[in-house]
Design brief:
The complex is a heterodimer of chains A (about 160) and B (about 80).
Chain A: H1 2-21, E1 48-55, E2 70-71, E3 77-84, E4 86-99, E5 102-116, E6 119-126, E7 134-142, E8 145-154
Parallel strand pairs in A: 2-8
Antiparallel strand pairs in A: 1-3, 3-6, 4-5, 4-7, 7-8
Chain B: E1 2-3, E2 17-22, E3 26-35, H1 42-50, H2 56-62, E4 78-82
Antiparallel strand pairs in B: 3-4
The chains are: A mainly beta (about 160), B alpha+beta (about 80).
Chain lengths: ~160, ~80
């Protein structure tokens, strides 16, 4: 009986010692983050120029009533710039007159815009005494980079 | 390429009137770029552009990054004229 008690005591002590030395299993690693694709309507498309057209009249939507490349001296000349995308945009129109190998700047106008999708912007020029007949050009810049140029004539 | 009135056989475009508009969500600024010529002053430019010489401050405010003294502008300097 005494032997049994001693054996029980030794066994209990061994179990206790083993329990003290036992390390707990590390917790499982957290699940890897899952990349969530933004909803299609949240994707930010950078601003770009879709097209530039010239006209002597625009509608309330700023779009050209009838695109044209030949104007009368008394016309107000509009350059309609259609853009897509969203973000800050500096849109510039530089108008020039050309005669032979010479050219002279007619006007340079800038619009600094915050765009939130397809946008129509227009630039216009007029001359109280009428436009001299000849060849002209308008170059459109987006954030400083030339993106389009259109030639037109005044007859 | 020359700018504005070339002084030779090219036409004078100094009286051209310009403007701009947009369907953009917000328009931060719309301005004409003008190159200063000899004899210009901000009040002369304001008179020509707005019809009122006292509007020179409007031009000065739009160009404070490059014009520190409204009496000191230089030929060739490009300034913003708010439209």
């Amino acid at each position: 009986m005494k032997l049994m008690s001693r054996l029980s005591l030794v066994t209990a002590a061994s179990i206790a010692l083993a329990a003290c030395g036992k390390k707990e299993a590390p917790p499982p690693p957290p699940p890897a983050p899952v990349a969530v694709a933004p909803a299609p309507d949240q994707v930010k498309v950078p601003v770009s120029v879709k097209q530039v057209v010239l006209a002597n009249q625009i509608g309330v939507d700023k779009k050209a009533v009838a695109p044209m490349t030949s104007f009368a001296p008394a016309d107000t000349i509009h350059a309609v710039v259609e853009t897509i995308g969203s973000g800050d945009a500096s849109v510039k129109a530089v108008w020039t007159f050309h005669k032979g190998d010479k050219s002279v700047q007619v006007n340079e106008t800038v619009q600094e815009l915050k765009l939130a999708g397809p946008t129509t912007s227009e630039f216009h020029i007029s001359k109280p005494g009428g436009w001299p007949a000849g060849d002209y050009r308008v170059e459109v810049f987006l954030n400083g980079a030339s993106v389009d140029a259109q030639k037109f004539a005044v007859k | 390429m020359s700018n504005g009135n070339s002084g030779n056989d090219m036409p004078d475009f100094s009286d051209v009137v310009s403007g701009a508009s947009s369907t953009a969500a917000k328009t931060e600024a719309t301005f004409k770029v003008y190159t200063i010529v000899s004899g210009d002053s901000l009040s002369k430019i304001a008179k020509r552009e707005y019809g009122n010489a006292s509007d020179w401050q409007k031009i000065f405010e739009a160009n404070k990054d490059q014009i520190k003294d409204p009496n000191k502008i230089f030929p060739g300097q490009k300034i913003r004229i708010p439209l």
